[in-house]
Amino acid sequence: MQFENKIICDGLLNKSLEVKMQKLIIYGPASLMGEIEVEGAKNAALPILTASILAQNKVIITNVPDIVDVKHTIEILKYLGCNVLFENNTVVVDSSSIGRFTIPPEYAKLMRSSVLFMGALLSKFRRVELSNHPGGCEIGQRPIDLHISAFRQLGIEVFENNNRIMCRCDRIKGSEIFLPIPSVGATENIILASIFCDGEVVIKNAAKEPEIVDLCHFLNKLGAKIKGAGTHIIKIEGVKRLNSEEVIHKVIPDRIVAGTYLCAVAACGKEVVLKSVFPRHLDSILHILKGSGCKIKESKNEIWIKKEGRLKGGLRITTHYYPGFPTDLQAPVCSAFAVASGVTIIKETIFENRFKHVPELVKMGADIHVEKDIAVINGVEKLRGCKVFARDLRGGAALFIAGLSAQGVTEVMDADYIDRGYEKIEEKYSLLGAKILREKGE
Ligand code: UD1
């Protein structure tokens, strides 16, 4: 068993290196036309898969995007000892044979969300070890001090030694935790760690993101008692054990993937219908695009967008916690407004290092200046295709949009960053009329 898992681990690393070689070749300019289904949300699927280790019985999770971060999470589940099947966007997890409480460095450094296994494993075993600081896209310092401080408030002993973090406790203490920042990951970790707490855990200034609401729906189906998800105060009443029934859960649509389609249409033009989407999760981006000359209609699960002529800039956009404008759409919006009329100003308030796409957009002819946390975009008529490098997931998506709108051929190198969060992106946009090839890079 040990040996087999070592192989999985090494295989995973090799695979990661291999996908680093991918590049997307985009033949612009595209005009996007048609209907497209929006995939399930990465940021909901990852914590839900992590939470599945708590289930008493098998869980069936549907609408799971077929993306690299999901595959990595499944590898971690398998490493811990779960039996997992992933087929046709459905994951079946049987955690009855789980036997480990350690996340090895190879896995921890692959993904920031590996940190959520700490909360889930603490609930399961009252113990967890993380042998590396959680990785992920380098968009800022991304510390985990709020997670650790919250664990300590729950009565968990936390030892840190070099990069290694060890946590243990006899029980999880009911308590009130105030988060100085409404961190998505810290909110999720506290919820996961508190399922079996003594009494009640109250999170004040909790994050309100829809993905947290989805995680709590899933946990409540398993038998947890969580109230207030989607508000700034979340209450978790400890339960003795979870239900024994099999649970089926459908992951919510990915609002960032949907927002990326909207930005692509805003940049390239024409007419697209997004299906299987929750427009209410996209209020901030819809408001911006409506104010910039896009025609948009929403119904319960669909968004129709039409853009003719040039996008109108002249806005000031600031990233915020939900329901504000999401930091994950900052880069895609940058690409759309790079070709808008007038000057658009974008202020990034969540992460310190999230303008890595800008120098690449400038290579393509964009006129953008970054000063600390502000990007000033002087819209140009057109971008021109060239070779650009993705440096992180959403920045990669921004270059992809820029390639769609540009004149000529754009090569987006290191497209594996994009594959972390977008399912078969070239196939999806080809369905809307774009011409894209995928090749191994140099
Ligand atoms: C999640 C999302 C990510 C999104 C981000 C903000 C997932 C898997 N990822 O990331 O796509 O961009 O929310 O919406 O859901 N912070 C601290 N100390 C901590 C934790 C966070 O200072 O212990 C800071 C971060 O550095 C950042 C801010 O808080 O500046 C928000 O981070 P957080 O909400 O925790 O983001 P993630 O959960 O990592």
TrEMBL record:
Residues that bear 2-(S-cysteinyl)pyruvic acid O-phosphothioketal: C137
EC class (word): transferase
PROSITE patterns, sorted: ZINC_FINGER_C2H2_1 (PS00028)
Domain C2H2-type stretches: 263-287
CC terms in the record's Gene Ontology section: cytoplasm
Binding-site residues for phosphoenolpyruvate, renumbered to this chain: K42, N43
SUPFAM superfamilies (alphabetical): EPT/RTPC-like (SSF55205)
Transmembrane segments: none
MF (Gene Ontology): UDP-N-acetylglucosamine 1-carboxyvinyltransferase activity
EC numbers, comma separated: 2.5.1.7
Location in or out of the cell: Cytoplasm
GO biological process terms on file: cell division; cell wall organization; peptidoglycan biosynthetic process; regulation of cell shape; UDP-N-acetylgalactosamine biosynthetic process
Active site residues per record: C137
HAMAP family in the record: MurA
Function: Cell wall formation. Adds enolpyruvyl to UDP-N-acetylglucosamine.
Family note: Belongs to the EPSP synthase family. MurA subfamily.
Protein name per UniProt: UDP-N-acetylglucosamine 1-carboxyvinyltransferase
Classification of source organism: Bacteria, Bacillati, Bacillota, Bacillota incertae sedis, Caldicellulosiruptorales
